[in-house]
Amino acid sequence: MRLEDVDRSREVPGAADAILHTLERFGLHWDGPVIRQSTRADAYEAALARLAAQGLTYACSCSRSELEALTPVMPGPDGLLGPAGERAEPRYPGRCRRGPARPDAPLAVRFRVENLSAVTVEDRLQGPLTQCVDASVGDFVLKRRDGFYAYQLAVVVDDAEQGITDVVRGLDLFDNTPRQQLLQRALGLPIPRYLHLPLVVDTAGTKLSKSRRALGADASAAPPILAELLTWLGHPLPAMLQRAPVAAQLDWAIRAWNPLRLHGVMTINSTQ
Q1: pTM over 0.90
Q2: Where does the pLDDT of residue 214 fall: very low under 50, low under 70, confident under 90, or very high at 90 and above?
Q3: What are the angstrom distances between the C-alpha of 123 and each of 128, 193, 198, 236, 256?
Q4: Which of 64, 87, 97, 210 is catalytic?
């Protein structure tokens, strides 16, 4: 179990404990102690030092508002780099590659992406997905100007240390995967297998998300909610298990699980 709380400024008091409690009520348990990214700065700093020794990082003074003025943000295509209505990350134009534009400003650390850096991810559900990181993202942030470590760096380091072999997550996060594979290669780390699931969306085609004030799962009603989730994922429970304890539901789902039932599905309507 890993709590990805590198940005402590955005953490809601009590949210981490609520997440752990909800997982337990849904029959999802973990091995070993809970790892919190907020306590792992030394590991991330060591990875930064290894990348810097290879000449793969540099300091950047650009703020997000400056970058948006330099590079207009375009909407991402539906279902791959971002669901409808969301804005994709602006491509970094390399403004500070030869030194910070404002050396006296707070500095971020960026990863130097080589030209024509096409990365193909062999996704277990979606098939091969290719992204040219240089053209679509550019040099990306590893450590932010406010001192917090970026998600890309933290998960790569933690996945390797925890021995993660398989990553299963939403299709909206595919855009992160090529960047993470560039870091894994640069750091000499193993590359896990990836499977990106379709997103659950509302009637407007927008993903359900905490950033859009979506309600959290009601842990007191775990069996019917789990039954509905499995139906969305193409694995409707037999009638006799619709309100069975979550342990029985999960046992059936583990034995029946076949991700290819979702092949070709990009989004799942939450009202269906």
Answers
A1: no
A2: low
A3: 6, 7, 12, 24, 20
A4: 210
